[in-house]
Every structure is written in C-alpha cells, then in structure tokens.
Amino acid sequence: MSKQVLRDQLKQTLEAVSRQEIERQSRRIALALQQLLKRHDNVACYMSMDKGEVDTHCILDWLFAQGKAVYLPRCTTTRETGQVALRPRPHHPHLTFHKMKSWQEVQELEPQGKFQLREPVKEQPAPLPPRLDVMLVPGVAFCARDGARLGHGAGYYDDYFKRYELQHQGEKPLLIGIALKEQLLGQLPQEPHDVVMDCVVSGDGSVYWTHRCNMMCPA
C-alpha cells in the first residue's frame, strides 16, 4: 500500500477518535515518558494540533517543571534561513528548533504560518540544530516492531534528522515516536531516506524499544 493511501485511511480513522480518548491516551504516554526522560536534560518536543494526534501539553508541562531545556520546532524554508539546502531544489521547507524560556511562553504561542501551528517566534539568525538528548517525534503512523515512521509527506523531520547529523558529526539524539493506539501498524512502507525511531510510546502506555535499547533503556 502506498504512503499516501495509508495517510488518507489513517486520517479517517483518527478523525473518529474522540477528544476524551485522545486526552486519556496522551496522559498514559506522558506518564511513560516521564520514566524515559528523567535522566535527560535537553529535549525537543512539538506543540500538538487540536485533534488527530497525541496531545503534548502534559509532557511539556512536566518537562518545564523538571527544569529540562525544552526546544520546539518552527516550519521555515532555506530561502528564509539561508541554511544549506539538503534536497535537489535550491530552496525547500525545513525545521528549526528553538529553546523555550518557560511553560507560560509556550502557552502564549499563537497559531501562525501555512499550517496554523503554534510555533516559536522567528529568530535572526535562525538557529542551527542544538545538541539534544532526546527528540519526541510526531507522525501519522509508527511500527512498534522496527521503529518505522510515516510522516505527513513534507519531509520536515527526515530533513532535520540529516541536518542534525551534519551539525553534530554523525550523531543523533534518541528518537522517540509518540503515537495513539490507532497510529500503530504492523508494517509501514519504507524508503532509503526514511529514519526509524529508537523507541515508540503508545497510547496504552506501552514502550517499544527498537534501536539503541542496550544503551538507553532505563534500568
């Protein structure tokens, strides 16, 4: 099955999940993440949309309460930032991650841009990828068996993973996909450029380690 067909099918499935169920699953995910993140200091997350994906408010609130350094993404383009283009066309979309000062600052973010996301304000110069311990990664679907991820198709995160490796001599942070139960599939189509997750946390609170488990799993 093609990626776009899967996206279309999952969109219909996720639209049927109630807000109450999303909040219930999101709280379970937040509790599981607290155990995984307690020894990590620099964490990238994202601001969730209103429906169809894990609500990140609980985990963001906890991260700030624990004194973690929290980074959120901004959708931009290489034309706007002047950063290196990593795709064939000279100017293309990419992400920058920005350190947030407080939970209050995050709560005050307003929807903006093409996708009406609550994003950090523009910085000049645009920040290069900061050194991170962990990235909490959104997606349309994940495979708990091998860590495969299906994104929305724009390539923002795959581009950023490559950008991060170039900035930090081939290293990557721990990549944790967070997913509602409805977003877990037994198999996903993969392409050579797709980056797999080290771990997937599901809406029932389950934690599925797929890579780097020996190094990163909590005792």
From TrEMBL:
Residues 3-39 form a coiled coil. Its EC number is 6.3.3.2. Substrate binds at residues 47, 53. ATP binds at residues 3-7, 149-157. GO terms for molecular function: 5-formyltetrahydrofolate cyclo-ligase activity; ATP binding. PANTHER family: 5-FORMYLTETRAHYDROFOLATE CYCLO-LIGASE, ATPASE INHIBITOR/5-FORMYLTETRAHYDROFOLATE CYCLO-LIGASE. Belongs to the 5-formyltetrahydrofolate cyclo-ligase family. This is 5-formyltetrahydrofolate cyclo-ligase. It comes from Zygosaccharomyces bailii (strain CLIB 213 / ATCC 58445 / CBS 680 / BCRC 21525 / NBRC 1098 / NCYC 1416 / NRRL Y-2227). The lineage of its organism: Eukaryota, Fungi, Dikarya, Ascomycota, Saccharomycotina.
